[in-house]
Every structure is written in C-alpha cells, then in structure tokens.
Design a protein that fits this description.
The protein has about 525 residues and is α/β, with parallel strands linked by helices. It contains 18 helices and 12 strands.
Length: about 525
C-alpha cells in the first residue's frame, strides 16, 4: 500500500509540476476517476485522512533520506552481504519518491564530473550523405557506427560532464556535419541522438529486435536486445549504446527508445517475472506454454500435437506413424531452431515429460530476455559514464523515465515553460492562434513540432524551476522562446515559420487566422524532418 501511495504521489506531482516536498498533505486526494485504476485499487477503501497522514510520514522519511542519509550511504551492492544498507535500500526503494532519487542522482552526477570547463570537448565529424534518403545503405555508415568508431579512442572520462543546464549547456562531445554550417552545438547534438535512436530501431542495425508480441499487435513497436551470441565488434557497439544512455542522462535529453520493461529490469538488476515478462515479450509462446501446462489427459495432448502438426511444428510419433508429436526443440526469437536438451530432436513430447517440455521453453525465452552477455556490455558502457550504484534505488520504470522521458508532450507544461520575446505577449492574437493550433494536434504531430523546434522528439517532463526556490535555472531545452520573424518584408500570411533549434526559439509571423496558423505549422513539421540551423 505504501508503494502504491508513492507511485500515486509521483504521478500527481508530475501532473501538478511540483515536487512531493512541496505538496501539502491536504492536497492529496483520490479522484473518482482513479477508482478504475488497478494501481491504486488497494488504497480505495482507506480513509482520506489516513492516506494524508501516511503521505506526511513518507514525506518526512524522504526529506531525511535526501538531506542526510543517502549522501552518506555506500550504494554499491555486494551479493554476499544480503543485509548491507544498499541491499536493504533496494528492497525499500518503493518507499522513496522519484524526485528524491533524481535529486540525489543529480548531486552524484555533478560530483563525478571528470571533464572540467578548461578542457575542450571531443569533436566528431559525421557525413549526412552516408544516410541520405532515409535508408542506411550499410550499418557501418550509420551515425551510430560513425560515432562509435571516432569515440572509441576518446577516454570515457572526457565524456563525463556536468548535468546540462542553462542556455549554453556542456555536452559530452561536439558534432560537426560535413558540408553543413551549423551554428551552436545543442541542436546538432540533439539531432544526433534522435537519429541514432531511429537507426537502432530500424533494420540497419541488428543490436535491437522487435519483440515477437508486436506481430500480434501487443506491445507494437517495442524492442529488446537481440538475443544471440555476439562478436567482439558487436560487444563494442553495445558498450557504446550503454555510453549513450549515460550521456543522455547527463545531457537531460530523453531518448526516443521504445524498449520492453524486461530490458530496464535487467539493466537495474531486477529479476524477470516468468509469467508477465514472457507474456509481454512473446505472447504466442506464452499461450503455447500455457496450453501444455493446462492439459488434463493424454487425449488432450494428442489433440494439441495434432493442432501443432497442422502448423508444421510437429513430426510423426515413433510409436505410431500416423500419430503427430512434438520434439524437444523450439524456435529462438531470431528464428533458429534449437534443442531444449541434449539430443532434443530425438526426444518426443509425451504425457510423462510434457511439463518438462513447457518449463524448458519458458526457460529458453527467459534466458533470451535476460541476455546476460549483451546486458553486461551495455552496463559496462553505462558504468563508464555514470556510477552504476545509482541504479540501486531506481525501479525499472524510473530508470526508463530518467533515460527516455515520456513519449507524449504535455502542452500545459510546455506553455508554463515558454518565454515571449521582443514585446510579444501571451494575449497577442497570433500567440493565441499558435496555442489553439497546437491543442488540435495529435501526439504524433506534437512530437514532430518539438523535433522541428529543438531537434529532439521528447522533452523533459520536470524542471528545477518548479521548486520555486532562488535557483530558477531551466533544464535544456527549456524555456521555449517565441519571437517575431526576422525582417518585415512581405505579408505575414505569406511567410513561413523559422526556428533556431539550439535555442528552442520559434520565429512566428503574425498570421491573421487560426486556419493559416494550422496550415503553416503543419507545413513546417512535415516539410523538413531534420532542421539543423533553422
């Protein structure tokens, strides 16, 4: 119940754009709409005063943890010491608010900076012509591989920079695009991370695999690490993927990566759920295993084998040529048939061993999802950029939030983090048209607009300025800026919207109607996919 309350407070504070420390207990309430949410089902019968008192207790606990306890604790886990403070904290991490974890994490990241301001940032050169037309001709031409090759000789300490903040943030490396004149470093860096995520989730690179469940419209578009033996070159690329995760955390640039929860579980060291994670990743195999586990007699087994035979997955039984049977083999996620045990191709599935067969298939899939070899390489890369002990207190969902943010744009949050320049005001008619147009956009169009305006598809959903303290620095790319267009030539309705992606600045003509604003915005977000300098 405490964990459910903490998760509910996390969501409430995200919606209100404040930290739990600034939330008054009397602001905690359960809306009637929450009654259908299974995540808070266990709290529905608790008196509201009891909930508020419990929140006050958790609030006090988190304040003590943040200000006194966590900065003094060794968070590295050692399996041999099951009662270490780190091990106990890991068990109790559901009691710690997300903002508390992020605050401590940010302090540690700023305390582990290894490249100071007097050291020049490493620079890599990318050739956009190598990926012209949108389709990567060969994996080695991708931005991901171009960058991995050039950064392989750069010590990882040079990539450990302070958290991005202010209008001119420090990033792990600078990027120069061959043949393109790009002003500033932020826009090109954010475009690079966006392009790399696009490559990772395409057929050009083989590091990630679309999860089998997506074939039947479950978890569509979700990926896992490709479960197959890796070469030395692939291990280096996975190491670089881990580094990019760490670089994105330090840069506070949410990566548009859609990975299954099982990936984040293995990354933070949590065990997989044999039922839930198998169902999420491969529902067809999950249903197949369940059928074998629920058989009550031999006739049902024979009928199931006949059904499988009709799908060309079974062979004839050695006991009866006309009797179909399954063997101790199964297809891996990459489509390769493997034996589930020694000489499995010669062992038929019978009533006596059908449970062993089902357990062996489940075990195969869980090993593929755990993918120890690949996850070890990713964690090694991540650990070269951020201290891995920070993952001790993070849940898989929180690690995903910290790395990838939320896949949707909160217009109210964006509006609250927007500045109007050169005399413009929120009440100006064309500004009202602008926000009115964005309110009609789908989430896909809003992501395209954000990509057009600042060269990243996802933007942070929290900002330090929400604390209301003297430190009102924004996390990049915030704040969004709206300014008049350059020059005064021509009618405003005939002009186009321009942006300066490094500054997240939109140069907005004074369009005369909502219809024209909609037309020009849609033209802008669809016309050019990767603006680098506006």
């Amino acid at each position: 119940m405490d964990v459910a309350l903490v998760q509910y407070i996390n969501r409430l504070c995200r919606h209100l754009a404040i930290t739990p420390a600034r939330l008054h207990p009397h602001e905690v309430y359960l809306d009637p709409a929450d009654a259908t949410d299974p995540r808070v089902a266990c709290l529905l019968n608790v008196p509201i005063e009891s909930l508020r008192l419990r929140f006050a207790l958790l609030q006090s606990l988190n304040t003590t943890l943040e200000t006194f306890f966590l900065p003094l604790v060794e968070l590295r886990q050692t399996p041999m010491y099951t009662h270490s403070i780190a091990a106990l904290l890991k068990e109790a991490k559901g009691l710690i608010f997300y903002d508390t974890k992020v605050t401590v994490m940010n302090r540690v990241l700023n305390a582990t900076v290894q490249r100071t301001a007097d050291h020049a940032a490493p620079e890599i050169t990318l050739d956009p012509l190598e990926i012209v037309g949108g389709e990567i001709r060969a994996s080695e031409n991708s931005y991901f591989c171009q960058a991995a090759r050039q950064l392989a000789s750069v010590p990882s300490s040079q990539l450990c920079v302070k958290l991005a903040s202010g209008g001119d943030p420090t990033y792990a490396f600078n990027i120069r695009f061959t043949g393109e004149e790009v002003h500033g470093t932020s826009g090109s860096f954010r475009h690079f991370l966006w392009q790399v995520c696009k490559e990772l989730q395409s057929s050009s690179l083989s590091l990630l695999l679309l999860c089998p469940s997506s074939a039947v419209n479950k978890n569509k578009g979700k990926y896992i690490l490709t479960p197959s033996p890796i070469t030395y070159g692939e291990e280096q690329l996975l190491h670089f993927l881990g580094q990019l995760l760490g670089i994105a955390i330090r840069a506070d640039v949410p990566l548009p990566l859609d990975l299954l929860p099982s990936f984040w579980k293995t990354l933070v060291g949590e065990p997989l759920d044999p039922d839930q994670d198998l169902q999420e990743a491969d529902i067809l195999t999950y249903n197949y295993v369940k059928k074998f586990e629920s058989i009550n007699d031999e006739s049902e087994l024979e009928a199931l084998c006949a059904e499988i035979a009709s799908q060309h997955l079974a062979t004839e039984s050695p006991d009866g040529p006309s009797k179909p049977c399954c063997r101790f083999t199964y297809l891996t996620m990459t489509g390769e048939e493997v034996e589930l045990c020694s000489r499995g191709r010669h062992i038929p599935v019978a009533w006596e061993n059908k449970d062993i067969y089902a357990a062996a298939i489940r075990s195969l899939r869980l090993r593929e999802l755990q993918n120890v070899e690949c996850v070890t390489a990713v964690r090694a890369g991540l650990g070269s950029i951020i201290p891995l002990q920070l993952l001790t207190t993070l849940s898989p969902l929180e690690m995903e939030l910290r790395t990838c943010g939320l896949p949707y744009i909160n217009l109210e949050f964006l509006k609250a983090h927007t500045m109007y320049q050169v005399g413009l005001m929120e009440t100006d008619q064309h500004i009202e048209f602008f926000w009115g147009a964005l309110e009609t956009f789908t989430q896909e169009e809003l992501c395209r607009f954000i990509k057009f305006a600042c060269n990243q598809e996802r933007i942070p959903f929290t900002c330090p300025c929400k604390d209301g303290g003297p430190d009102t620095a924004h996390v990049p790319p915030y704040p969004m800026k709206i300014a008049p267009p350059d020059g005064t030539a021509g009618s405003p309705d005939s002009r186009y919207i321009r942006v300066e992606t490094c500054m997240f600045m939109i140069k907005l003509p004074q369009y005369s109607s909502l219809e024209i604003m909609l037309e020009k915005l849609r033209c802008a977000i669809h016309y050019r996919e990767d603006p680098l300098s506006g």
